[in-house]
Design a protein that fits this description.
Blueprint lengths: L2 E9 L8 E7 L6 H11 L4 E5 L8 E6 L4 E2 L3 H13 L6 E7 L2 E7 L4 E5 L4 E5 L2 H7 L16 E4 L3 E6 L12 H7 L4 E7 L2 E7 L7 E2 L3 H14 L6 E9 L7 E10 L2 E20 L6
Parallel strand pairs: 2-3, 4-6, 11-12, 13-15
Antiparallel strand pairs: 1-2, 1-17, 3-4, 4-5, 6-7, 7-8, 8-17, 9-10, 10-11, 12-13, 13-14, 15-16, 16-17
Length: 291
């Protein structure tokens, strides 16, 4: 039976069995897209990443990232997890590397201590949305809303866009997501967060998918920086630091340490960093080719 190697690692945590679990697959150069998607469904985690030889000039390695349903151009915890795990396996030394993925060539700084800092792609900012339908979809009320004139619900991202909704801290534990309502509203990727003094507490949802809440979401943490600058909650010039606490309600506490750099009120760069802990390794059978 033909097999490929894999590791299960926990990302954005200072200890194992917390953070966001990730399957990292090696030696899959000959697998087709359908085979990779089948393996991602077998692992049944939020994401599975395949570490492959690069195809772009200047790249250190290539990452293909799959949810249980589809391939993504980019995601945060697979990018951080892949970089640290590949370094530990001797594919490259600690230091600066370049990840090739669907969002382009992204810089990653990897340390011997098992930490990586990922620089996101080009910043994007969407238009504002009404908060009331979003709050109702979550089982919350107008009193739970913590936005303002500029701090409105809107999409933002650095390679993968999320819809951001600011709420009061105590509202996070009371969220009850109405998936049919989310479908009616066209909400597919949602970060609900509370903000105070450079610290965000967040819950991140992907309604309608098999893994519908995420305990640590690097792409959402990057997008939050874009949102915070646009809202005026972080300075519009220079580099600011902030932290995102996530996964608490899921009993998988996570910490994402971030920076956002802005000029003239617009984001020019954002980073997210965290540790990666190995928890399992083995080999898995290669599924039959389907496509």
């Amino acid at each position: 039976m033909s097999t490929v190697a894999y590791e299960i690692v926990d990302v954005f945590t200072d200890r194992p069995f917390a953070g966001n679990p990730l399957a990292v697959v090696f030696g899959a150069e000959q697998l087709g897209t359908d085979q990779m998607q089948t393996l991602a469904r077998e692992f049944n985690l939020a994401e599975t990443v395949f570490v492959l030889p690069p195809t772009a000039e200047g790249a250190t390695y290539r990452a293909r990232i799959f949810t249980t349903e589809t391939e993504l151009p980019f995601a945060g915890h697979p990018s951080v997890g892949a970089a640290v795990t590949a370094m530990r396996r001797g594919m490259f030394a600690a230091g600066p590397v370049i990840q090739e993925c669907g969002a382009g060539l992204l810089p990653v700084e990897v340390t011997d201590a098992g930490r990586a800092t990922l620089t996101g792609g080009e910043a994007r900012l969407g238009s504002s949305r009404e908060p009331k339908p979003l709050l109702s979809m979550l089982g919350l009320t107008a009193e739970d809303y913590a936005g303002g004139d500029l701090a409105t619900p809107r999409e933002a991202g650095c390679g993968l866009d999320w819809l951001f909704l600011p709420v009061r801290r105590e509202a996070l534990a009371r969220i009850r997501l109405d998936t049919p309502a989310a479908e009616r509203l066209g909400v597919t990727d949602l970060s609900v967060f509370a903000w105070a003094d450079g610290e965000a507490h967040a819950r991140v949802f992907v309604p309608g998918t098999s893994v519908w809440e995420d305990p640590a979401t690097g792409s959402a943490a990057l997008g939050l920086g874009v949102w915070l600058v646009a809202a005026g909650w972080l300075p519009g010039d220079g580099t600011s630091t902030y932290r995102v606490h996530q996964g608490i309600e899921m009993k998988r506490p996570s910490l994402l340490e971030c920076t956002v750099t802005a000029a003239g009120g617009s984001t020019t760069a954002a980073t997210v960093a965290g540790h990666v802990w190995p928890v399992a390794e083995g080999r898995i059978a290669i599924p039959p080719f389907i496509g």
